[in-house]
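Hey, I'm writing a tutorial for new members on how sequence and structure tokens pair up, and I'd like a real worked example in the thread rather than a made-up one. If someone can provide the structure for the chain below, I'll link this post from the tutorial.
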Amino acid sequence: MENAKTIILDDVQDREIFKLGRFELIKFTMPDGTVNAVFKDCPFRSRFGDNNDLSKSDILKKLTSEILPEIEEIVGAENVLELETDLLSLDGSKKHGVMTSKISLPTFDFYRANRETFEKYKLDEWWWLATPDSTSEYYNDNWCVCVAPSGSINYYYYSNYYDGVRPVLRFVSSISVSCDE
């Protein structure tokens, strides 16, 4: 984005790239007029945590302590909205509940609904999703869902792999962002 201009997020086309500081994000307009934005690139790689519950994960701790403050400094904390992440497992367990936070990971359902958009940007590394495979309620809480560079879904043990972290945030649509001219 060498020839970037500043515009209002609402003026960025849906499913296109915009920039906040050093990060490029993909815009997804929500039915209520807010914007979910998913990082195009992974700002870091991490093991998931001590189990597959995102709300208690190493990933969420790092997102909350490092990435979120950087974004809030750019756009103002009041312009980053809380979002709900349903941690429903692939096999239907509701044990992990719904997590409310200002930063999260995409869910399997969000990824599946938007796979063509993610393919468009040729994401070239493995990355974690918020959705667990199962929980101890039904099977165990060892397996986390991740996306391969090919776009296929796989499962990794929560602490053995250091996959990419591709955050999602929700913004008011009136913030200023940068984009290509």
